[in-house]
Backbone:
């Protein structure tokens, strides 16, 4: 006999919906760092401080000097599917902000202890709110203190989802993932000051600068002294950045940074296009280093493929592949180091 359905079909409680969604987006501490940094950048921050404790599991506190959130909007900031970034399908198709799903803070708040403190430029003082609104325990904002901008303080990640907690790796591994996320966003925005500390010790402090200097700060002086500039435009497509000389290639693909409209992506098509440009000047077991930024009409690219938005889809992927391949090939052809007779034109 068929087993009986254990229960009638029922809608899930909101808190559980958020925890399920969080499972998808908030895989580990570095995912919290990514979401909070993206929010800070979307808020127009020029200076961002990231404080981590115990690999981010104990605490992730991110402070920015961005536009802040008015106290009456704070409960919405923590609510699911609430965003200030899009209001319609046409906004979604032209989205220029890093966030737009309105899910991150709600997801984080459902699997950690979250406190949001914020002050807008015209407010007399800061306000704060904590808890998870879907839990019904967030309530209203309370008066607080602090400078203009926002601090989001996330403690005890996965305190209420022990199954998730078990999947966490060592403190050092989790910290490594967090630091990598900071590097990705810092390379995307060389104009912004980033400070990162772990367990009270300063790990990185990058002053605001241009992309070349930021590359030196993050990819190292070695890369900076052995790289070629890329700056190509073809119709609506533009590729900007730096590619490492073939002689500076690495044994691991650990210094490959590609951005589409300011968003870090790891896209097979783009990786392939760059790799193909290096084809004739690089051994198969070596990996090029690069920091490249592709700009195009947002309507020509779909960033809504996956909640973590690391994958993208292009309307005309062939044209994008060709453009990236040719732009990188031309940059590599600038150098006599590629004069093996087979450098692509
Ligand atoms: P999304 O970024 O997709 O809109 P989030 O859950 O990450 O969703 O954030 C919800 C809303 O909270 C944002 O739309 C924004 O209005 C506000 N917000 C979040 N973080 C910040 C911040 N650091 N500064 C200003 N506003 C913020
Ligand atoms: Mg966001």
Residues:
């Amino acid at each position: 006999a068929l087993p009986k359905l254990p229960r009638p079909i029922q809608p899930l409680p909101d808190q559980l919906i958020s925890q399920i969604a969080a499972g998808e987006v908030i895989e580990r501490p570095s995912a919290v760092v990514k979401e909070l940094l993206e929010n800070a950048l979307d808020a127009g921050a020029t200076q961002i401080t990231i404080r981590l404790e115990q690999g981010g599991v104990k605490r992730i506190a991110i402070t920015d000097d961005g536009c802040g959130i008015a106290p009456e909007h704070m409960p919405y900031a923590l609510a699911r599917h609430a965003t200030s970034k899009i209001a319609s399908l046409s906004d979604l198709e032209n989205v220029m902000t890093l966030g737009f799903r309105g899910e991150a803070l709600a997801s984080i708040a459902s699997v950690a202890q979250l406190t949001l403190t914020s002050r807008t430029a015209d407010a007399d003082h800061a306000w704060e709110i904590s808890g998870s609104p879907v839990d019904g325990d967030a309530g209203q904002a309370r008066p607080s203190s602090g400078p203009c901008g926002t601090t989001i303080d996330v403690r005890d990640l996965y305190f209420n989802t022990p199954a998730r907690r078990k999947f966490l790796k060592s403190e050092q591994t989790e910290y490594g993932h967090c630091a990598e996320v900071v590097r990705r966003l810092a390379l995307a925005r060389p104009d912004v000051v980033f400070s990162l500390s772990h367990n009270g010790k300063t790990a990185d402090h990058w002053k605001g600068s241009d992309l070349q200097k930021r590359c030196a700060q993050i990819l190292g002086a070695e890369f900076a002294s052995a790289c070629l500039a890329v700056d190509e435009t073809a119709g609506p497509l533009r590729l900007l950045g730096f590619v490492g000389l073939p002689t500076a290639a690495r044994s691991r693909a650990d210094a490959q940074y590609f951005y589409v409209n300011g968003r870090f992506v790891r896209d097979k098509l783009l990786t392939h296009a760059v790799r193909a440009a290096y084809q004739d000047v690089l051994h198969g077991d070596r990996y090029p280093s690069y920091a490249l930024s592709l700009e195009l009409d947002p309507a020509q690219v779909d960033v809504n493929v996956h909640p973590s938005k690391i994958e993208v889809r292009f309307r005309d992927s062939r044209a994008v592949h060709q453009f990236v391949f040719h732009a990188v090939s031309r940059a590599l052809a600038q150098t006599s180091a590629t004069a093996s007779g087979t450098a692509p034109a």
Remarks:
- The two ends are 71 Å apart (CA to CA).
- The longest strand covers residues 227-234.
